[in-house]
Amino acid sequence: MGQPQQPDEAEGGSAAERPSLGVGMVGYAFMGAAHSQGWRTVGRVFDLARRPVLAAVCGRDGQAVRAAADRLGWAAAETDWRALIARDDVDLVDICTPGDSHAEIALAALAAGKHVLCEKPLANTVEEAEAMAEAAEAAAGRGQVAMVGFNYRRVPATSLARKMVAEGRIGALRHVRVTYLQDWLVDPEFPLTWRLRKETAGSGALGDLGAHIVDLAQYLVGESLVGVSALTETFVRERPLPGGATSGLSAVSSDGVGQVTVDDAALFTGRFTSGALASFEATRYATGRKNSLCIELNGEKGSLAFDLERLNELSYHDGTEPGTHAGFRRILVTEPDHPYLEAWWPPGHGLGYEHTFVHQARDLVNAIAEGSAPVPSFADGLQVQRVLAAVEESAAKNSVYTPVVV
């Protein structure tokens, strides 16, 4: 069996001869580590027209960011994101910070002539997202690209599902149901991190998890949500401060706890432009669920289902087959002609979560090299932001309830 060509073996010359693409990344925690994995690996797997170079990583703590640079493979470290943007060896700014700084960094990077990759959700407010989308559109006229990091689009199985929907394999869509379940907040003693503060995170499970499933559903369906009805809840409203810190907190009690100002769970229904119905659940309180994302699409001619915990598989039911032997069947998405898999391992050798960031980097580098519009664009991120805002507005209207006494 032949092996995939490495970049320096493929037609078009060695990787070292190709124009470089200097990447500067702001933030180096969970998402920063995942993005670093993508940038380190992509040029060693895929045949790219530009050669990504990990030029510099940025963080506020000088000692910590230098250690992160060494650990994650970055050539230099900065403690001011403005200095990172100003570097001549940075062509693309990758934003992996909390949501409250996305807009400021992205707008400055675009104004400086840089390409931009911004983690989801695009911003903390619709107004910020609108400004970012407008700036990205203007920058596109100057040859710059701007993309949002919705990495679950880059799972080969979900990309295959999108292709099958577009081909009409399940016919006219009737239902979509999506859940994204985690349990890392079940312990009430878990500290009040930035993800639990509205001023930094924008929202809770809604923005953290809900943004992913809204984008994934719209991507698979190929339509936008046009209406929602929602409920949200915060189960634990006060949490201990991490290390006794109080900086930036709007509400701190004398006993070392602060208020949780975001949602812990969000439930909402929706309708797509075609009239298809959808239900969504995003929670960080599903005890026993670590990172469970499931989506199912039901159409007039069939159904598709995906489970992130089985990410190399796609379930497909062909409703046109005779009932005597019809049913869901497993598609093992590891063939070389499946999305993204032409450069990876032989069939049956599965990929993992980290590969979605490699694929994300590949698509962005290709868009830059080709001068094409990347997806999801900042306009796509804005559309998701509008859905999240509509969910919050609906939940606020539905927040008053009277318990039924039996």
Automatic annotation (TrEMBL):
Residues 161-304 form the GFO/IDH/MocA-like oxidoreductase domain. InterPro entries: Gfo/Idh/MocA-like_OxRdtase_N, Gfo/Idh/MocA_oxidrdct_glycsds, GFO_IDH_MocA-like_dom, NAD(P)-bd_dom_sf. The keyword Oxidoreductase applies. Residues 22-142 form the Gfo/Idh/MocA-like oxidoreductase N-terminal domain. Keywords: Oxidoreductase. The keyword Oxidoreductase applies. Gene3D superfamilies: Dihydrodipicolinate Reductase, domain 2, NAD(P)-binding Rossmann-like Domain. One of its GO terms (molecular function) is nucleotide binding. Transmembrane segments: none annotated. This is Gfo/Idh/MocA family oxidoreductase.
